[in-house]
Amino acid sequence: MLPHSRKKKILLLCLICFVPAFFYICYLCRPIYYPNEPSVTSWGAPIVWHGSFNRTREDELHRAQGTVIGLSVFAVGKYIPRYLGHFLETAELYFMPGYSVVYYVMVDNFSLVPKIHLLPNRSMVVTKVEKHDRWQEISMMRMRDIIELVVPRAKTEVNFLFCMDVDQEFTSHYGVETLSDLVAQIHSYHYLWPKFMQSFETNPASAAYVDPSKSDYYYHAATFAGTVPEILKLAKACLEGIWRDKEKGIEAIFQEESHLNHYLLHTKPTKVLSPEYNWDGWRNVKYPTLRWMPKDYRNLRENPA
Ligand SMILES: CC(=O)N[C@H]1[C@@H](OP(=O)(O)OP(=O)(O)OC[C@H]2O[C@@H](n3ccc(=O)[nH]c3=O)[C@H](O)[C@@H]2O)O[C@H](CO)[C@H](O)[C@@H]1O
Ligand SMILES: [Mn+2]
């Protein structure tokens, strides 16, 4: 039998450790939706949530302007058979329904590209890209290919350009409420985490360096968007940072995502997408619009680390 004073100490310790942990877990698990969450950033940009915008008004505006939207997506190696078909099929269902859309599909092997039946007013341009040996290079060099292969076409064909990862699926209406000059996606993993736990590059020698205490949000590179000139500026800045790091023999912790976060800290996005627009599958988002597909790094990536 433990002495009475020892029991009291253990009980007190449990209260000190577990009660705050319990409340923090409840905070992390609570349903996330508007109007419980903020819908404007500190610099005045809207944070888009289900219910925070008037879709009818936005639709009227974009239909009157004849807005055309581009969507660039890369699928290299095993990512083509695993993800590309489903990504495009769900985009046909939910990405900007009723609008003219041009898909810029970047692959290393034309013969594996699935046949997708496109709706009227929607077209697809398939372009061959180099296959790099490391997944990190495949991921990072998308910035170079966006500059050299996507932008030259997109600048005359579309008003807004989205750049997305392929390992995701659309699950409900992803509409014109997401359009703006420069659009960034809040990373759903990091949304509720304190700043010191965010995954910014913390090596001051890297061009991607961000002091977490000065940050706004941790953004997810799986979606960024904007007008074509803004995307060109963003991609050029990220690529320059990647080259500067390479000259020093370093690679930012989350590759182009780290450089994107550095850029967006200094060039504030004009619109921010809430975690609803890039849901990780377990986060308790009430109105998910696009969701991560299951990862399978071991089988899909060329190199394990
Ligand atoms: C844990 C981890 O690894 N995280 C990285 C990765 O998250 P992710 O796990 O989201 O990376 P990912 O495997 O989806 O790769 C990014 C994208 O590059 C393309 N791709 C990549 C590899 C490949 O062999 N074929 C191919 O097509 C594809 O479009 C893919 O969606 O990417 C992020 C950028 O979005 C960051 O760079 C993260 O550091
Ligand atoms: Mn991804």
TrEMBL record:
Annotated residues for binding of UDP-N-acetyl-alpha-D-galactosamine: F74, A75, V76, Y79, D165, V166, D167
GO biological process, one term: carbohydrate metabolic process
GO MF term list: hexosyltransferase activity; metal ion binding
InterPro entries for the chain: Glyco_trans_6, Nucleotide-diphossugar_trans
Keyword terms, alphabetized: Glycosyltransferase, Manganese, Membrane, Metal-binding, Signal-anchor, Transferase, Transmembrane, Transmembrane helix
Positions bound to an alpha-L-fucosyl-(1->2)-beta-D-galactosyl derivative: H187, E257, D280
Cofactor note: Binds 1 Mn(2+) ion per subunit.
Record has Transmembrane helix as a keyword: yes
Active site annotation, chain numbering: E257
Location relative to the cell: Membrane
Cofactor(s) listed in the protein's UniProt record: Mn(2+)
PANTHER family in the cross-refs: ALPHA-1,3-GALACTOSYLTRANSFERASE 2 (PTHR10462:SF33), GLYCOSYLTRANSFERASE-RELATED (PTHR10462)
Similarity section: Belongs to the glycosyltransferase 6 family.
Protein name stated in the entry: Uncharacterized protein
